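User: Hey, quick favor. My workstation is busy. Could you predict this chain's structure for me?
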Amino acid sequence: MTASPAELRLLLLDGALRFAEQAREGLEAKNFEQAYEGSRQCRAILAELT
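Assistant: No problem, here it is.
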């Protein structure tokens, strides 16, 4: 199965949102390693989309 370019972008955005949520949860829990890792992954995905 192959995904269209639009479907691939949607999958990347979904991943970015999941990592952003992970970062937010880490900040709320004062788990700064989790917050950093989530934000790093989110930024990496967004950089690929630009």
